[in-house]
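Entry 12.
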Amino acid sequence: MKQDFRCYFRAYSIFIIFCLSTAAAAGASIIFSSCARIQYIFEQGRGQLKLQNSAKDNEVVLKNPQISKEYKQKIGEILEYKKFFYDFFSKANSKIYSKTTILDDQHVTYLVVASKFYEIKAKDECFPFVGCFPYLGFFSKESAYKYANDLEKEEYVTTVYPVNAYSTLGFFEDTILSSFFNYDRYQLAELIFHELFHSIFFVKNKVELNENLANFFAGELVKLYFSKEQKDVEELAKHQRMEDNYDQIKSEIVKMVNILQDRYSKEKPSTKELAQKILDSYLQHDFYPQVKKLCEKFSLKNSQCYFLDKKWNNASFVSLLTYQRKFDEIAKIKSEMKLSLIDFYRYIEKNWN
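Predicted 3D structure (tokens):
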């Protein structure tokens, strides 16, 4: 999937609503002493409540003549993916995605990832009750960039990503978002399977593991879902070849990031300017040439090799590591254990949770 960062803003909404709803009952001073960013909490709380309040039942949306035929078709596809997912895992069907929210913006949130200038390591954002996350999400684009700019004035480098999907881990009735409709059917299926996986499996403070597991299971479920239709076989094979190529390139990038980290460790830059010189040299002489060779190896056109168009820095490398570093390891474990996908899920549910 070209859009690599799909599932960012998940547990913050839980924390925000928890703070707002329990402040009156437990005492505002106690709650707010745990919530270090009061303004952030209220802003995101308003954004979350707006999403919940503006959602309409799917039946209402599907009957609305102002909603495009394409959007209605996407909603139908999502409901089919949802049924397939819960049937596959023998889980009770939930109310998730029973409503649709038409957004004012093309994206639902904006994600800020930060890393110190001298290392490739995420700045953790920690909250009571829900744990720590290597990013912070904002419903407001302006607020996201303001926060990023504030961090840039310190010892951090940042990156801001538009986000098309998020999960509340089953604590709320997540709605279908119009930002989902930016994807083709294979990407959409993978997105839905990814988000739904978080609703049945989530390990606190293990974001990287959670994201890589969701990526792995989503990819496998896409294969199973579309392979049941003979008409999809050829198109699915083409899609899968592209996805496999991207995964191999990302796996190589994970290895390449270690080279940059070694240079930071060896040269120990004392300022952001010195660190930027190390990064620029690495990108020019190592990273981009190697990525270009990989894309040529897989016969990817320049327009398909989106890694070359991306502005890379420590923070954007952190983002890729979060969603990719353990992917190959997970696939290897399943392969070595010779388990079916459902049996592998039962194994991790028993042993990794």
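Annotation: Residues 212 and 327 are 5 Å apart (CA to CA). The radius of gyration is 21 Å.
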